[in-house]
Amino acid sequence: MKRSLLITAFIVILVLAAVTLTISLTSSSEVMGTQADEEASDVPFWKTSIIYQAYPRSISDELPDGTGDLVGITSKVDYLRDLGVGVVWLSPIYESPMKDFGYDISNYTAIDPIFGDMDDFDELVARFHEHGLKVVMDFVPNHSSDQHEWFQKSVRREEPYTDYYVWADPKGTDDDGSPIPPNNWLSVFRGSAWQWNEERGQFFFHQFLASQPDLNFRTPAVREDMQKILTFWLDKGVDGFRVDAITFLFEVKDLTLNEPEVPGSEDPDDYASLNHIYTTGLPETFPVIRDWRVLLDQYPDKLLMLEVYSNNMETLMKYYGNETYPLGDFPFNFLLIDHLKNRSELTGESLRTTVGLWLDNLPKGKWPNWVLGNHDVGRVASRVGEDLVDALNMVILLLPGTPVTYYGEEIGMLDTFISWEDTQDPQGCHWGPDHYQEHSRDPARTPMQWDESKFAGFTTANSTWLPVNPNYKTLNVAAQILAQTSHLKIYRELAVLRREEVFMKSNVSFPVITKDIFTFMRHLESYEQYLVVVNLSQKPVEVNLLQNTTQELPQKANVVMRSITDTSENTKPGMEVPLDKLPLTAGEGMVLTLSSEV
Question: InterPro entries from the xrefs (predicted)?
Answer without folding.
Answer: GH (IPR017853), GH13_cat_dom (IPR006047), Glyco_hydro_b (IPR013780), O16G_dom_2 (IPR045857)
